[in-house]
Design brief:
Elements lengths: L1 E5 L4 H12 L3 E5 L8 H12 L4 E4 L6 H11 L3 E4 L8 H4 L1 H21 L4 E7 L23 H20 L3 E6 L2 E2 L8 H10 L4 E3 L6 E2 L2 E2 H12 L23 E6 L5 E2 H12 L5 E3 L15 H7 L7 H16 L2
Parallel strand pairs: 1-2, 1-4, 2-3, 4-5, 5-6, 6-11, 7-10, 8-13
Antiparallel strand pairs: 9-12
Helix pairs in contact: 1-2, 1-8, 3-5, 5-6, 7-9, 9-11
């Protein structure tokens, strides 16, 4: 297939592009290489795909309406995976307008590109953060998600609503994927595992929020990519049993679906740190702090819909995933 992947220099986008190229798909990669974090790392990720004859590298921001329209019209992708976004819960407290530009205006341009160019299926990144103040565990795509705790979460919830509108009005199959704390080699430097590793190796203390008393459904990058591909290959169908009298938020009478992609196995933050310490052979100096504004105490993914519809369940244990990350980190940074 010809697949347009936005965020192709990003953590997930780069890994997905590689997998698609390896199986023989053509990939049109879009990324603006912004400086939210180390551009050098983004360029190193891109170098893994840029030399492949099936890869086209476009330097565009999602909010550039004319450039996005031209990319769709010129390359005519059959399917689209939107992974580009202004990421990060905490940064959304400091710079909320960046989320409006990329995650709302940019996503509208993606939807318009799909609508006007006969795209067969749009798969887009949502987030476990949409569950917000909901404390009913495990988080199910059938739960209410009307109480986000950050603008980042609100923007992802908005993407789900915008996608449904296009599915309903224009028959565009759309699938939203709520990712749960993705980690692994080539990861983002603003994520906990990356920062913990860097600080432990340089004898700096690590900031442990909520005094370490929260749990995360840490999900390994390869599991996320496998889940995306399983879903991408199965355009969202309508739910023939959907009823406006008892509406199901994860499906629709339109071709629209939502899935969680998580490990379905929450790990306490302190256990995660212990695993990292074991892999590094070094103890962390911990700076215990209260829960950050915008953060949720726990995440736990119900992936029963993903298993039912795609036959896939993420299952990489943190012991294995963290060890792979540490091996990559040592090699990449020569430490």
């Amino acid at each position: 297939m010809k697949v347009l992947v936005t965020g192709s220099a990003g953590f997930i986008g780069s890994a997905l592009s590689l997998r698609l190229l390896e199986r023989g798909d053509e990939v049109i990669g879009i990324d603006n290489l912004n400086d939210y974090y180390d551009v050098g790392l983004k360029k190193a990720r891109l170098a893994r795909t840029a030399s492949h004859p099936g890869f086209t590298d476009l330097r565009i921001s999602l909010e550039q309406r004319d450039a996005m329209a031209d990319a769709f019209a010129r390359h005519r992708p059959e399917r689209v995976v939107n992974l580009a976004a202004q990421a990060g819960v905490r940064y959304s407290l400091e710079n909320p307008l960046a989320y409006v530009d990329s995650n709302l205006v940019g996503f509208a341009n993606i939807l318009e590109g799909c609508r006007h160019n006969g795209v067969e299926h749009l798969v887009y990144a949502s987030s476990s953060s949409v569950y917000g103040a909901n404390t009913n565990m495990p988080f199910s795509v059938h739960h209410n998600v009307d109480h986000p705790l950050s603008l980042y979460a609100a923007s992802k919830k908005a993407n789900e609503l915008m996608a449904h509108t296009y599915s309903h009005l224009y028959g565009l199959p759309t699938t939203g994927l709520r990712f749960f704390t993705v980690y692994g080699p080539w990861g983002r430097p603003d994520m906990a595992l990356f920062m913990f590793t860097r600080n432990i190796l340089t004898d700096q203390p690590i900031d442990v929020f909520n005094y370490g008393n929260h749990r995360r459904d840490f999900t390994y990058i390869d599991d996320i990519v496998e889940g995306i591909i399983r879903v991408l290959d199965r355009p969202a169908p309508p739910n023939p049993d959907w009823s406006g009298g008892a509406p199901d938020s994860a499906t629709s009478s339109a071709p629209y679906r939502l899935y969680n992609i998580g490990n379905n196995s929450p790990v306490e933050l302190m256990r995660y740190i212990e695993v990292l310490e074991d892999c590094l052979g070094k103890k962390a100096q911990k700076n215990l702090l209260p829960l950050q504004p915008g953060d949720v105490p726990d995440t736990y993914a119900d992936v029963s819909d993903l298993i039912r519809d795609t036959g896939y369940k993420p299952d990489t244990p943190v012991e294995e995933g963290v060890a792979r990350f540490v091996a990559w980190y040592r090699e990449y940074y020569k430490v």
